[in-house]
Give the backbone structure.
Amino acid sequence: MPLILQRLLLPHLATGTPPASASTAARHLHPAWVVVLISTWLATACNVPLWREVAQLPGQGSLRGWGFAIAFALIVAAGNAALLALLAWRWTLKPAAAVLVVMAAFGAYFMLAYGVAIDASMLTNVLQTDVKEAGDLLNWRMLATVLALAVPPLWWLLRRPVLRLGALRHVAHNGLLLAGALAVITVCLLLVFQDFASTMRNHTKLRYLINPLNSVYALANIATKPLRMDTSTLIPVGRDAQLGASYAGQAKPPLLVLVLGETGRSGNFGINGYERNTTPLLSARTDLVSARNAWSCGTSTAASVPCMFSHLGRTGYEARAANFESLIDVLHHAGLAVLWVDNQSGCKGVCDRIGEVVTTKDQVPALCPGGECLDRVMLQDLDTRIAALPAEQRQRGTVVVLHQIGSHGPAYYKRSAPDSKKFGPECTSTSLQECDRQQVVNGYDNSVVETDFFLDSVLKWLSTHDRQAKTAMVYVADHGESLGENNLYLHGLPYSIAPDVQKHVPWITWLSPAMQARTQVATGCLQHDLAERRITHDNYFHSVLGLMDVKTGAYNPALDMYAGCRHAAAVTTKATG
């Protein structure tokens, strides 16, 4: 495979040799045939996920349904041909065709194996995946699929020399090829326009399955982002931040731990009513607040984390014209000590101005089997790391962010220690479709048991600091996960078409009695107010600022999920006084 690609990408081999005679020329393939045949392969063999979805559309068994499917296939093939016509030059045709074939082969595998759709957010998530996470996705099925879809056309491209055309003739032929492809698209659309428009409107996912045009469009979207927004400028937020009245003459500073969960499904947390008791330690407590109707900002870490730490909210964040400083920056501007500890693939730019501690480099043997660390490792040496923060800032207050590996798939079985494996048997393959769905769920649920242990450990660690600080913890996951429902796995579908399980996340708050007194927010009030109230990641930025009593123009009390109980507590205190 590497040899084939190497030879294809060498320009002199990509174009073949000039024909020496009429018989030699006859053996050389016209560039237009390369475009047509490769486009046909891409539209058929590499689009099995698309045609599988089309086959399930209502009315596909009828003559009209067959007509729509054939027209749709011609549109896809012509779209590929139009793209290749733009690249069908002497030095670029074979390399471009080879890249599209390999791209389509990988895209087809992931869409077949996990039911994913490909858009800019998905590709951004892929580009930010670290080596260990990528390794979890490698398996023999991927190799077999990619080889089956890529090797035949690559071998064919390698073996067939392409006819060289003069410059003007090449321009004319490419122009005609492009015009022909666009004409095919236009005619087919006119023939099935009503059905096509209705299908694209009601079955939005189909547009993200058109392979490899979906990946090409997504890459173009990412590449042109600097043209649509100013990525070189970071707009300040909360530079006016000041500490509120609760800091005046304080005997003990606040200590808030923000646990940033990974791939958490609210419905699989026992504390939220799941039929399995996946959270025995948390469920045994009476001093926790679990918001059961919480929703994420995105369906991937790359989308959700920057969004939830932003003051803009999901709609504003997606429409932003430039990047802004984050919640972490505002807390730092206020003069608080801030520490980010990461057991994942980084903070996605959120903590760039303060830095991060990456625990995966610690490699504690007992907590990092196979080089991937359990979240428990983040509590190792945490006191030492906090002590290294500036003393003046720590005297005001400290915010610690613990970014989990959580339930990151597809290797769910790696996310729990042996003592957390309550449910079995687990799926021990990263090719989830090989396993019975219950085995997949078992592996995922055991990762939730591990998160339960970790959060309980965080609460125990906070209790050891009660004499020195007023403590609190807020846990919320970045996004959810699909576990085989409707043949969908993992996460990252476009938000508009993603199932609720990829967006419905757990959100748990714990306030020590001292922190309740400091903030005038009573746990009992929150348990009543937040149990079923709909909240989203839009609330996160403002709620954290409210808990830490940080005053800034960026703070919106209407989005502070704790503000309602703060006012209620104040009224109660005044009435009883």
About this structure: The chain is about 45% helix and 10% strand. The CA atoms of residues 47 and 332 lie 49 Å apart. Confidence is low (pLDDT under 50) at residues 7-22, 571-577. The first helix runs from residue 2 to 8.
